[in-house]
Structure formats: C-alpha cells, structure tokens
Design brief:
By secondary structure, the chain is an alpha/beta fold. The protein has 15 helices and twelve strands. α1 crosses α10 and α4 packs across α13. The two termini are 33 Å apart.
Length: 456
Amino acid sequence: MSLTTKSLQLLRRPHFSSLLYKRGQYFSTNAAALLDDDTEDYSTTTTTASVSSRPRLESLRQQLRSENESNTTIPPIRVTKTESLSTPSTPKEDDDANASSSSPNNNDLDQILQHLQDLPMPQEPLQDRFGRQHSYLRISLSEKCNLRCLYCMPEDGVPLQPQSHLLSNEEILRLATWFVDNGVTKLRLTGGEPLLRKDLLELIHGLNGLGGLEQIGMTTNGVTLSKQLPDLVEAGLSHVNISLDSLDADKFARLTRRPPSYHKRVLQAIEDCARLLPHRTKINCVVMPDNVDELEAFCELTRHMPIDVRFIEYMPFNDNQWGADEFVSYQDMQDRLQGLERIEDGPNDTTKWWTLDKNSSSSLGRIGFITSMSEHFCGTCNRLRITADGQLKVCLFGKTEVSLRDLMRQGGSDEALQKLIHYSVQRKHFKLGGHKDMEDLRAHSDENRPMTLIGG
C-alpha cells in the first residue's frame, strides 16, 4: 500500500478529526561573534520540566556551569560598523538596519585577525567555554526555496544575494575539510532548499571523500527529491530529513503557500527514501494549531515504514508569524497522544524519542519531539552552522555572525581560520543565543535572519 493511500485512510478514521534584518535589504556581519556580550544568568538555564524529566542532562548542565566559573574570559574585540559591499548605505539612527548581508569590510577583518595573531593556537578549536565539543556542522547551500512555509519565510520571499556572494563548492570543501580534521563527524546540507543547487551531486561526492566523516545528511522539502535521490545516495548521501507538516494536500497547500500537487511529490519522496535509506530517513513536522489534529496519523506512519517522525515546537524567527497562541508545547502534544513508550536518546540528541510499541517488531520507526522552546537542550549542544553566504553562526537563535568566506577570499591561512573559528565558538552563549525564553526570542526576532537564510 502506498504512503498516499495509507495517509488518506488514516485521515478518514474518526479519531483523527546588534544586526537587524529589514525586508528588501541584506544582512551585515561585523564579526559580532567576537564583540562584548551581556552577562548571562546561568542560574536560570533550565526549566522545572527539564529538571524532572532529564536528571542526567541537568547534572551535566550543573557541571558545565561550574566549569564556566573557572574559565578565563575571552577578551572582547570592538570593531566599527560595516558599510554595504553591495548597495549604498543610507545613514539612519541604527546603521546596522541598512547594512548589507556581505561580510565585514577589510578594515574590520584585518583588525580582528591582528588581534587573533597575538593569541595562542587553540588546542581544542571546536570546544566552547562550557566544555561543549562541536562535532556536527550544518551547511546551507542555497537561500532559494520552492515553498513559502509560514514558519520559515515571509509570503513574498526574502531578498536574495548575488550568486557571487554565496560559497562555491571549492570553498565549502575547504571549510568542511578543516572542520572534519578538527573533530566534526556529521555534516548536514540545508537551505533554503539544497536540491536547488545545481552542483549538489559534485559537492556530496567531494564531501564523501573526507576521512573521518561518518554522516552526510540533507534536510529538504522533498518536492524534487525522488528524481535525484538514487544519484545522491550513490555519491555518498547517507541520511535525509524531509519537512512535511500535513498529510492532507489542501492543508499542505495552505501551510506552504504552494499548489496541492506538490504534496504528492513529497509523499513519493518519503516512500523512495524509506526504500533506499531505511532507518536513515526522518520526517520533520512543525506543530501548529492547524495541524495538531494530525499527530496520531503521523505516528502511525512509523508502524509500517522504516522512518522516524519528529514533531518540532514552533520557534520564533524573523517575520514568521510566531505567537504564543500559535505555540503547541511538548506537553500539549503528549496530552493528545496515548500509548507511546519512551526509549533511549542518543548522545547530544536534540530529540526525545518514543515508539508506538518498543517490544513489538510491527513498529518499524520511532517518534520524536524536538522541544527547543519548552525544554531546551542547549546544555549538550554540539552544533555549528555556516550560512549560504559563508557566515559562521554558533547558535541558531543568535544574531552574531562572522565571515569565513571573506577570510578565505582574502587569502587567509588555515591558522587564521582556526583562530577565528575558535574564538567565535568561545563567544557562544549557554542557551538560546543569549535569550531568556521564547517570548524574549520573539521580542528580538528582527535581529536574526529568517529561518530560510540561516539554514535551519
């Protein structure tokens, strides 16, 4: 039975009734990852729910906070505001609001590198001041997307940079090589929509040649995946996450602002991935009031297919219509589901894993919950991100960025790259990019990029 047919049957069952982004302007990065940050209150980094449900994680967080007290403070670097490299800047009260998404000008970058030149070479370049070792790198390949999901971008899209501002395959491979040599074992290719990148196959083939790399994953909306999947797997793609927020074609169209016909393509892609990448395929579903009634139907997919389904709490980003009344918490989801059984989470896992029946061979997949807002997992974070235009983001929710692209294009050495990455990682906040909670994130969401320009 096809996924399309099963989905329809399930639905018929009665119980399933300092850097600002402005629309039309680019980003600017002024190596803000190395600027002064406000002091965080580490005594309030966990919620009551997380303490009671994850004692091992709370113990680790306490250890990290203790270690932080003895760590040396990283010296701040002050740089001037940048000028646009792509469009003339217009003087206003907040210079950053009119800056371009290109990276710092030469004076800024030179100032940073001059400061770093006097600092010793880091022995653990991917370890932050809380002792977290970063072994997972997410690389965005494109700012473009063929969907307009409500939680990801504005309806009329986002301003796109010239292709010359984005990383080339050669630049991505250089960065990936450095990160793998320094302890990264897992890469994930994101977007935008990564399948829109024309040289994707060649890139994956090149990444597959890196020794020490254990996984090459991709997060995609799946619309054009089926045609490319066999070649991608042959080139070295090992894991796929497919974003799907509804099993109903009309609801899918409302949430993505695209034709219902796209829905069938995504369902076919899930079937193809289950066949070619069994137990290495996940469905990512952002849970909102519009689709909360479909949770059980999504769970049922794991009974007969070797795939995992993950429910993701709706997170506030630039211009994505987030509001407290649109938020469905982990506890709310749990209250709607009966009969799930808890199973063990993996190291550094962002997902709380459950199954329909852990003692039955009839359930082929797992069910997961990503609780970024209600029970954050920042204490064991091992992720870093590189945007399509080459900015290093040490936290999904942070506004700070530093340009690795400009360093490479100015002839920077691997030694300079290592220092710049390390001292950027050292500025990483303990939780949520330095924000207190989801309401604080919403209040400052215009200081971050839209999700599609970050890479998820």
